[in-house]
Amino acid sequence: MKRSNWRARLSKIELDTDDVNERVLLVEDDASLRETTTLLLERSGMTVTAESDGKAALDRFHSDAFDLLVLDIMLPSMDGLEICRMVRRESQVPIVMLTARAETADLVAGLELGADDYVTKPFDGPELTARTRAVLRRAGSEPHAMKLEAGGIVVDPSAFRATKNGQVLELSATEFKLLIELMRHPDQVLTREMLLQRVWEYDYMGDSRMVDMAVKRLRAKIEDEPAHPQYISTVRGIGYRFGTP
Length: 245
Description:
alpha/beta; Rossmann fold; about 40% helix
């Protein structure tokens, strides 16, 4: 998309930026897109640090504190998928992937590695802003929400903490929100469309692969045998059901 078009779109965006100052690490090697995406995120009230190189971005992540990572997949020295993999080894910070390629392998790989969402280029400015805002909201706590308990799993939404048999579960913001949604509706079938709307906050038909990959990651963390799940069962062709062993 031409820079002039980006600036025109930016000028039309009206967002509430009161009390907003999330720190974002943007990693994009295209100079024009990096500049316009930075302006877009800053307009929505975020503080943006931009990098063009994968290894430099990982060094910056280790030296500074960030609330969100926005990663392009194709990067020099180290691609976005490798950055996502390495970040997930030590942090559950929300991650949104950017990719110019709509190939299934890239998208699924990012989601399997723990990305919370993705946006395929070229994208509309408001779309990226809405998705990054939704991811950040999922990372926030729910101060008045009550604890949930089932089969040894205890979730405290206000503390953003989940445990199983007393052991802390290292969940990403999306996995945490997904677990809460499933536990709030025990023994009920939740369709992929319902989960997209409630967890990812999509008011339109989103990509059900995000639900499937998030469930896969969540099972790996809460199930004794993820291949034979006892908590989250699949209702073929429809969605998922939460129960206790």
